[in-house]
Amino acid sequence: MTDRNQTKESPEKKAAGLYAASLVKDGDAVGLGTGSTVAYTIKELGRRVREENLNIVGVVTSYQSEMIAIEAGVPLTSLAETPKLDIAIDGADQFDSNLFAIKGGGAAHTREKIVSMSADRFVVVSDPGKKSEILTVAVPIEVMPFGRELVTKSLKDLGGEPVLRAAAKKDGPVITDNGNFVIDCTFGEIKTPQELAAKISQIPGVVEHGIFMNVDEVVIGKTDGTIEIIKL
Ligand SMILES: O=C[C@H](O)[C@H](O)[C@H](O)COP(=O)(O)O
């Protein structure tokens, strides 16, 4: 289970996060993902802004990344103001050798997909445990509360095992930053992620699923502070 709030230092996540921050150039508009790995990137970008006078603007994908970015001193803008981004950096829950990824462990995948698709380059930061021959983790699906029953039934019809995500410190379901529910749906081994993604997208009430097919490269951090880069 990932330490979502970065209560413990992770050398692997830190190595990946810091390397990704070094890819950001002066003048860049940067998509800032959500989660414990990219949090290292956001903090490092703040340091570069303060200490190296790096001139960048960030677009956040969640209240979490907004709070981290504000505290770190990363200047922020919106997609309305800056619709085209130079680079987006984000974590993932699992990725395969084709760089298909599953995201949304923090329920932020809808905004993450919009932001990453708005960027010329999408870099995923990861630790070694996220790499898998084949995608197997549950697919997070953001759902309009009004459509929950239909979406649940339709996911079962697709062979999935849907579970409404419960909040950790509140009674009832997780509510996303967009005011919706999240259903985590297990499909066993996902052999054709594109096909599954297309089928899920067709279900009325689905806001967005966590299958990402737009990753350009993955940076994997190691415990000794080195990194491995995987590109197609
Ligand atoms: O909704 C959250 C995101 O997709 C995260 O980027 C993903 O869950 C990975 O998070 P972490 O870096 O904490 O493992």
UniProtKB/TrEMBL annotation:
CDD domains: RPI_A (cd01398). Belongs to the ribose 5-phosphate isomerase family. Catalyzes the reversible conversion of ribose-5-phosphate to ribulose 5-phosphate. It comes from Methanimicrococcus hacksteinii. Homodimer. NCBIfam families: PRK00702.1 (NF001924), rpiA (TIGR00021). The keyword Isomerase applies. One of its GO terms (molecular function) is ribose-5-phosphate isomerase activity. Pathway: Carbohydrate degradation; pentose phosphate pathway; D-ribose 5-phosphate from D-ribulose 5-phosphate (non-oxidative stage): step 1/1. This is Ribose-5-phosphate isomerase A. It catalyses: aldehydo-D-ribose 5-phosphate = D-ribulose 5-phosphate. Keywords: Isomerase. InterPro entries: NagB/RpiA_transferase-like, Ribose5P_isomerase_typA_subgr, Ribose5P_isomerase_type_A. It is an enzyme of class 5 (isomerase). The gene is rpiA. Substrate binds at residues 34-37, 90-93, 103-106, 130. The active site is at 112 (proton acceptor).
